[in-house]
Amino acid sequence: MTVSRFKDHDKPQLVQTLRNINPRQYWSMYAVSIHPIERFLDNFFKYCPRDSLMGNHSKIICYGCWDDMGCLIDKLYDQFWKVIKKKDKLTIGDYIFAPYSWRCNFKYNLKDYIKLNVSNENIFFDEIDKILKRYRIDKNRKKLIGNYINDMFDNRTGRMVSNDLRLVYDSELQRKQNVVEKFLSIYYYDYVNFNFELPKFPTSL
Q: So which domain of life are we looking at (predicted)?
């Protein structure tokens, strides 16, 4: 299977901005990532069902595809090519579904970041706790950070969807050849840059 991979897109240079604020300050940068399929399905279930809390905004964010996942991936694939070729700008829907590798100018600065994966919550919280202890963060700030992280997990709408429904869409995402190819085209560098194992698809593909 041959796929065209989305790679080149610039975002604001966060690292350089921080260095400009205080050139003498050493900044420890952390990139928090989630498995590409998990992230896509979380956003899909949050924004695309017809009964979504986003209402009419869902039609815009999901390109009118509603709960048709194959349609959405087709639309995203075409739109992201336009963005890369400078023929269009990112919309709010693009930003929600865009490859994580496009954020924070990771193309240039990813080596400056320490990567954290949220797919396993227990391991993630252990890593955060170690970081807070390492930097001797006071109790009040620890609580503030803890509340923020809890909100982050609580707001993953896709987690509230039944496992059976997630499995149906997960299976569809990995079963249809054209969907598989376009999904990997879009998110290939998220797998590579954040050390996720590429999915193994049936050899019939």
A: Eukaryota
